[in-house]
Amino acid sequence: MSEVRVRQAAPEDHDRIHPVLDDWWGRPIASVLQSLFLDHFFDTSFVADDEQGLAGFLVGFLSPARPEVAYVHFIGVRPDLRRSGLAADLYDRFFDLARRNGRTEVWAITAPVNERSIAFHRALGFDVTIQPNGPVRFRRPL
Ligand SMILES: CC(C)(COP(=O)(O)OP(=O)(O)OC[C@H]1O[C@@H](n2cnc3c(N)ncnc32)[C@H](O)[C@@H]1OP(=O)(O)O)[C@@H](O)C(=O)NCCC(=O)NCCS
After folding, report:
1. Which CATH entry fits the domain spanning 5-107: 3.90.1150.210, 3.20.20.140, 3.40.1400.10, 3.40.630.30?
2. Is the pLDDT score of 1 beyond 80?
3. For 45, 75, 87, 108, which has the most beta carbons within 10 A of its beta carbon?
4. Could you tell me what percent of the chain has a pLDDT over 90?
């Protein structure tokens, strides 16, 4: 495995992230990541690269309406790099950023079918709320 480098995202990263989404998620999901998320939240998002190209990403933001909350919209790791700790590393960076900005909670959601995401968020210490109809909600104090 080649070295993975993590950096702050840039608006142009949308054009690299968007095309891999359906493949990495294994279902049609790309419409959920509009360019506005990278245009306006690149400074609270991270991109990981290795010699093969895009290795992973985390798109998140500091909630404008809830001053205690930081929110992760999307996190993904290239399939061949999974279970190597990359997503946990991306979240650690986001937790640090959120703390530095005075946030005390991180929120995220996922689709009920996404058992891998639920297991991952549980492993990172998120409380998991499963609703009968609607997304699975994750919350974690910082
Ligand atoms: C969910 C996802 C981001 C996890 O990325 P990852 O880099 O493989 O995760 P990590 O290696 O940091 O895993 C950290 C811990 O989470 C748990 N975990 C991760 N993937 C898991 C899986 N498939 N099943 C069970 N537990 C899992 C484990 O406890 C793991 O620690 P361990 O490997 O030491 O046991 C990745 O599987 C992915 O990109 N999936 C498709 C996109 C997606 O569903 N994103 C989340 C919704 S926005």
Report:
1. 3.40.630.30
2. no
3. 45
4. 93
d(CA 30, CA 21): 5
Between the CA of 82 and the centroid of ligand 1 the distance, in Å, is 7
Indicate if ligand 1 lies below 6 Å from the C-beta of 4.
no
55 lines ligand 1 (CB under 6 A): no
Query: What residue type is assigned to position 134 of the chain?
Result: G
pLDDT in tens, 26-58: 999 888 889 999 999 999 999 999 999 999 999
Domain boundaries, the chain: 5-107
User: pLDDT at position 52, please?
Assistant: 96
Q: Is 27 in the pocket of ligand 1 (CB under 6 A)?
A: no
Rounded CA-CA distance 3/8 in Å is: 17
Helix (H, G, I), strand (E, B) or coil at 26: coil
For residue 117, the one-letter residue type is S
Quick check: pTM over 0.85?
yes
